TrEMBL record:
<protein>
    <recommendedName>
        <fullName>peptide-methionine (S)-S-oxide reductase</fullName>
        <ecNumber>1.8.4.11</ecNumber>
    </recommendedName>
</protein>
<feature type="domain" description="Fatty acid hydroxylase">
    <location>
        <begin position="280"/>
        <end position="417"/>
    </location>
</feature>
<dbReference type="Pfam" id="PF04116">
    <property type="entry name" value="FA_hydroxylase"/>
</dbReference>
<comment type="similarity">
    <text>Belongs to the MsrA Met sulfoxide reductase family.</text>
</comment>
<dbReference type="InterPro" id="IPR002569">
    <property type="entry name" value="Met_Sox_Rdtase_MsrA_dom"/>
</dbReference>
<dbReference type="InterPro" id="IPR036509">
    <property type="entry name" value="Met_Sox_Rdtase_MsrA_sf"/>
</dbReference>
<feature type="domain" description="Peptide methionine sulphoxide reductase MsrA">
    <location>
        <begin position="7"/>
        <end position="158"/>
    </location>
</feature>
<dbReference type="GO" id="GO:0008113">
    <property type="term" value="F:peptide-methionine (S)-S-oxide reductase activity"/>
</dbReference>
<dbReference type="GO" id="GO:0008610">
    <property type="term" value="P:lipid biosynthetic process"/>
</dbReference>
<dbReference type="InterPro" id="IPR006694">
    <property type="entry name" value="Fatty_acid_hydroxylase"/>
</dbReference>
<dbReference type="Pfam" id="PF01625">
    <property type="entry name" value="PMSR"/>
</dbReference>
<keyword id="KW-0560">Oxidoreductase</keyword>
<dbReference type="GO" id="GO:0005506">
    <property type="term" value="F:iron ion binding"/>
</dbReference>
Length: 443
């Protein structure tokens, strides 16, 4: 019985590398893991942070009497693009580099010889053919210490839905979604757009229902004003235009930009809830600051006349008007929503797409609530003193001045752009108090 040998290759996401080698060579044993870096016992999330130096790799045990090392190396070059540095498909980062890790001088010699042959074929191929004239960037390096990847990564493409107890339903569904698409950009854009539409219109539904029930009229901030069916229809058409013609193209451009900065897309399991919570909190702070200053700018002269005025066509807003705006305004203020995550991931390289989705969902909840025209007893401003809420933003639509913030009140307070609003509140509270006294006297 011949002694088995080991071959280790890195060619992008190790799920696919392991899967294709197992499928093509029936007599091998394969495992995925990390190699080539400096960190000891790295986790998948640490490797994805691009700070460990490790590559995602596939370690193959093979019988040289059944399949030669040269055959494995030749197949390795057929499985990926060896001419792109630190990138395979939509996956970018040094963990996705192309590399051959040899275990003996003989393996090194064979790897170099096969690489030379592949390069000669590329050099002699016809112009316009795949990889024609490109230079191979595959590293051929001595194997360092190998670290097995977590159990749920092993044979992942074939078994994750059945034998991955560490993954919850959402994580399995997430992976199934992305595995069902050949193009990750399309998969990301579609799920992002569907999420946006479901959350946006779904959040509007409770307020539409409240409009139909007289009991809730007492919570309407501008109870003396009502919007017609024609106004709702006009708003809906404009919002749908913005969603499909402005936001959808931007959503498609998100994946290439975000992955360039290091955003994790398909990684599972998801980050811990504690991490997602503080990241979302930071995004709220960033967006509120961004929105305050750019919103104020949009109230300046020509910016208001030609851009922001459209959003103020409804002095008594309702939920759907949250994204009723000029396309330029949609882009400018939308930059505050997505700018926080992009800035964060560009600095830390530690952010997952699911966290971005949670943030955007909460941001949509916030902005639709702020435009709802309702101030319920259970509205957040009654529990969080510095929360803006509908009562704060409704004044902005009614008076066209003051209250430029989105989520919080502190920028308006610090900059004195809530003085008229506070005076208005004091007046309304005094009127309400006097009205109560009058009723007591009448009784």
């Amino acid at each position: 019985m011949s002694k088995k040998e080991v071959a280790t290759f890195a060619a992008g996401c190790f799920w696919g590398v392991e899967h294709i080698f197992r499928k093509h060579f029936k007599d091998i044993e394969a495992r995925v893991g990390y190699i080539g870096g400096t960190s000891e016992n790295p986790t998948y999330r640490q490797v994805c942070s691009k700070t460990t130096g490790h590559a995602e790799a596939c370690k193959i045990e093979f019988d040289p009497t059944k399949v030669s090392y040269a055959t494995l190396v030749e197949f390795f070059y057929k499985t990926h693009d060896p001419t792109t540095l630190n990138k395979q498909g939509n996956d970018t980062g040094n963990q996705y580099r192309s590399a051959i890790f040899y275990y003996s001088p003989e393996q090194k010699e064979i790897a170099e010889q096969v690489t030379k042959q592949v390069q000669e074929k590329l050099d002699s191929s016809k112009p316009g053919s795949l990889y024609s004239g490109s230079k191979i960037v595959t590293e051929i390096v001595e194997a360092s210490e190998w670290y097995d990847a977590e159990d749920y990564h092993q044979d992942f493409n074939d078994t994750f839905t059945v034998t991955s107890p560490n993954l919850n339903f959402a994580e399995k569904a997430w992976t199934a979604w992305f595995n069902s698409f050949e193009n990750e950009v399309v998969a990301t854009a579609l799920i992002a757009f569907i999420m946006h539409e479901v959350v946006y219109f779904g959040r509007c539904v409770p307020f539409w229902i409240a409009d139909l029930i007289p009991f809730f009229r007492k919570y309407k901030i501008q109870a003396n004003k009502s919007n017609t069916v024609a106004e709702h229809w006009q708003c809906l058409k404009s919002v749908l235009f913005a969603h499909f013609c402005v936001e959808l193209p931007l959503i498609f451009s998100f994946h290439p930009v975000a992955t360039m900065f290091g955003l994790e897309i398909t990684t599972v399991p998801f980050p811990q809830w504690q991490k997602m919570t503080y990241q979302v909190a930071l995004f709220f702070l960033f967006e509120d600051t961004f929105h305050y200053w750019f919103h104020r700018l949009l109230h300046y002269g020509p910016f208001y006349k030609y851009i922001h005025k459209q959003h103020h066509e409804y002095s008594a807003p309702f939920g759907l008007t949250a994204e009723y705006a000029h396309p330029i305004e949609v882009i400018i203020l939308g930059a505050g929503t997505i700018g926080g995550p992009l800035l964060w991931v560009s600095i830390t390289h530690d952010l997952h797409l699911i966290t971005v989705f949670i943030w955007i969902s909460l941001r949509l909840f916030q902005t639709i609530d702020a435009h709802s025209g309702y101030d319920f007893p259970w509205s957040l401003r009654h529990f969080i003193p510095f929360w803006a809420g509908a009562e704060h933003h409704d004044y902005h639509h009614m008076a066209f001045v003051n209250c430029f913030s989105t989520s919080f009140r502190w920028w308006d307070y610090l900059m004195g752009t809530d003085l008229k609003y506070r005076a208005y509140r004091e007046k309304k509270e005094a009127e309400l108090k006097n009205s109560g006294k009058a009723k007591v006297k009448a009784n």
